[in-house]
Amino acid sequence: MSTEVSSPGEDVLGWVTETAIRAGFAGVVGSDQDLLPLLQQQQQDQEGEQHAHTQLDRRNSSGPVDEEEQQQHWNRLGMLLMVSTMAALGTLGNIFAIAAVMTEDHLKKKGNVLVVNVMLAGLVVSAGVLPAWVVALLAGWSRPTPVCSASWILTTLAAHASLLTLPSLAWENSARVGGRSVGVLVLSTMVGVSWAGAIAITVSQWVTDLAPRHCGRASVTSPRAPSHTAFTSVVGVTLVALPLLVALVIHAHTLLTGRGGPRRPLPPTVKPPQALTRDLALTGTNLVVTAVAGGCWVGGLAGDWWVDDPLRTGVAWLPIVAATCSSFLYVAHKPFREAYVQLFHYCCCKTSVSLSRRGRSGEAAAAAAAAMAAAARPPSDVRVHIIQGYNMYTTASARDHRLPTHIHVKIPCRSKESRRPKHHHKKDVYEL
């Protein structure tokens, strides 16, 4: 049996090797434990950077969408303000024009019922169509809106009714300037025929699918049918363009001849009567209204028939402009202008009076205030009651210095009682 005896050198070498191996393993493990927090911190930093990049990408992608929505909201707000203003002004103007014909003495004539008919056609649009558009804008409905068909039916109806009334209005003005009277039955027939024709034309368009292409009834890119061309050619020339041309020619002939009838015009040295002057002035105003409003009506109908997208090009707004501005064109005529001013003052004063009423307990204070106001007024004022609840005070100086109408009438001598000074503090009250 042999035994191996290790030398001291080998033992020392083995111990050194084992110690080195243990020390190296411990160092590696210790270094890994020291690097672990650093690795975790680096990983968290990378995740934070990725989250920041993700949020930035989301903001960049949602930015144009938010700007587009904001722009749509601003456009809707601007459209709402514009439509509301046009509806208010158009309705007020048409009502004032109708009231002027009913209240002004120089306008209380049978033939002006045709002017009222034109204003009624505009009132259909300003009081019926534009408020529906306001509701659609407030509700945020997308195109086409639920009220689209009804609004454009009323617009087309008002356009045809107004255009069919204009030739009758021109003929009535010519007859009035020429000294001929038009009967009530004839005027009623003119008004009835204009609305009946407008209803027939409008219904036929929507029944045969030849109506304006605003409400999705037909695609904008689709070609138009041959029947559409035939219908618009016949109706457009016969019942739209021709009435406008006839009205313009009659108005121009009436103004150029000065009489508009078979009578001979007055000599240059003879001054025409005031009635003839007023009739000619009204005829000139009607000519302007026919050219401007009638041109807008015709342009709107032609755009509905022939333009592919009238809403985008703005042609569809022409009937709205015609319905809104036609009543304000009559401001050029003096009786209409004076009637507008009186109606405006009456509406304002009526509102202030109704807001400042007192009860029965304040009758004494009201009487004292009225007495003080009467004492503060000049002694030469005349109190005129134009409308119940609306008083207008005018000076009587012009009335006192007015020349007598009959120069050759002998003025009787005044008695002693008449020579006595009159009490100027008393006021004359006239009820008109």
UniProtKB/TrEMBL annotation:
Coiled coil: none annotated. Residues 41-69, 413-432 are annotated as: Disordered. It is a multi-pass membrane protein. The keyword Transmembrane applies. The keyword Transmembrane helix applies. It is found in: Cell membrane. Gene3D superfamilies: Rhodopsin 7-helix transmembrane proteins. GO terms for cellular component: plasma membrane. This is G-protein coupled receptors family 1 profile domain-containing protein. GO terms for molecular function: G protein-coupled receptor activity. The chain crosses the membrane at residues 79-102, 114-138, 150-170, 182-203, 230-256, 280-302, 314-332.
